[in-house]
Amino acid sequence: MKLHNDLWDYALQLYAKPGVESACLQLQQEWSLGVNRLLFCCWLATEGRALQAEQLSTCEASQWQHSTTEPLRLLRYRVRAQRQHEPELELCYQALRQAELAAEQVELAWLFALGRDWPVVASVACEDLLLQNIGQYLCCEGIEPEPGLLAVLQVLVQAAAGPVPARRVLQLQW
């Protein structure tokens, strides 16, 4: 496993763009979507690769996400709430944030290893592939298209692919 890889670098750059962190956290909190999965879908499109959703649900990264990353996040949320009344918990909270970030890096390393050898789809534009990948992921998660979700996805898509016309995302179906 290679922790420092192209997907990790890409994820850090995309996540740092204006509005992306907030959009990703909203997608995670309101629709229970995996931020790393969304970033993976975007990265795959820049690489010219289509998401192979059937492999995504059974891969090491998914097992890691459920067994490690999500429990760390829930614990961090619990400590975050408690530290409002117990400021002494700040060091514990910060340690949990670092542990969660390290777990996310492991998850992205497994996603990188999974997707780097998928075939390149030369005949599909990056913007189209990006919308296709995200649509496939959302379909696998059982998420229905709805205006609020699509509006938040617009922020991520435009940060990843440039000025994608809003109507393309808002009309996204899967």
Automatic annotation (TrEMBL):
InterPro entries: CHP02444
The organism's place on the tree of life at top rank: Bacteria
Record-given protein name: TIGR02444 family protein
